Amino acid sequence: MRLIVGLGNPGKDYAKSKHNIGFMVLDSYAKTHQLKFIRETKFQGEYVKLSDSILLKPRTYMNNSGLSVRAVAQFYQIKNEDILIVSDDLDLPFSKIRLREKGSAGGHNGLKSIIEHLGGQNFNRLRIGIDRDDNKDVVNYVLGKLSKEQKKNLENLFIETNNIIENFISGQSFEQIMNTYNPSKSL
Q: d(Cα 45, Cα 73) in Å, to the nearest integer?
């Protein structure tokens, strides 16, 4: 069983914010495959259960995402290495992706909560760039709405993230997925 988690904040006020890119990625995947999320209180989130995987959108707010992730992982006995977390990243250009097998929270409170509740950093990450605006406070920037230009870039991003999720669900090794989708480094 594999678990794919999109990070975000519940509610209309946050729905189109940059910080909710993880929710948007899972919503795109669900729409493409005609899946419907179900709210489940014991998981503190919304989820879709497929035959060999689960899609999860925690409803705990970003800073407590680990509560929901741990509840699902424990219930279905999912190992950390079979978890993929989709989150926003201020340090990447908008819509650029970076896949990693493990690492620190990097200042991201959702990842910090997941590390704390899973008891380690050895879970897979799909980080999506939301860029940074040095003229704005970080909290206001990440909770701010996407610009029209940024919204236009989402269609191509969602094609790529849908493929990544599909590869992860199909059991492809994360190393192989990283080799396929991470931007190559110039020599």
A: 13
Instruction: pLDDT band for 56, please (50, 70, 90 cuts).
Output: very high
Question: Residues 80-86: what's their mean pLDDT?
Answer: 97
Model confidence band, residue 185 (pLDDT cutoffs 50, 70, 90): low
CA dist., res. 77 & res. 147, Å (int): 40
Q: Where are the domains of the chain?
A: 2-173
Q: Which CATH architecture has domain 2-173?
A: 3-Layer(aba) Sandwich (3.40)
Cα dihedral 108, 20, 182, 35, rounded to 10, equals 130
- Strand-pairing partners, residue 56, are 5, 47
- Please tell me whether residue 121 adopts helix, strand or coil conformation: coil
Catalytic center residues: 19
